[in-house]
Amino acid sequence: MVEDDQEIQELIKQFLMTQQYTVVVASDGLEGMTQFNKQSFDLILLDVMMPNLNGFEVSKMIRSQSNVPI
Questions:
Q1: Could you confirm whether the keyword Phosphoprotein appears in this record (predicted)?
Q2: pLDDT for 12
Q3: Domain locations along the chain
Q4: What is the CB neighbour count within 10 angstroms for residue 59?
Q5: Domain 6-63 belongs to what architecture?
Q6: What is the DSSP letter of 2?
């Protein structure tokens, strides 16, 4: 999950963990791309309005490398 709002991060993370998902959190687009390049993911939850790289930029970068659902 790439989300810059810590309250939203925690809310989504807690919900997904109750559903037995493993959650990796990044706080901005640059951190999200770093995590994406380190490991593989089954799904990416991506905020649109973030500092450094916005969600549209991150989505375009991910899509150029992978077909993972965003």
A1: yes
A2: 98
A3: 6-63
A4: 17
A5: 3-Layer(aba) Sandwich (3.40)
A6: B
CA distance 46 to 35: 13
CA–CA separation, 61 vs 35, rounded Å?
13
**pLDDT tens digits, one per residue of 35-69:** 999 999 999 999 999 999 999 999 999 999 999 99
- DSSP 3-state assignment of 26? strand
Which residues, including other chains, have CB under 8 Å from residue 54's CB and lie 6 or more apart? 29, 48
Tens digit of pLDDT for each residue in 8-41? 999 999 999 999 999 999 999 999 999 999 999 9
Across-strand partners of 2? 26, 46
Give 3-state DSSP helix, strand, coil % of the chain, rounded to 5: 45, 5, 50
- pTM, entire model: 0.90
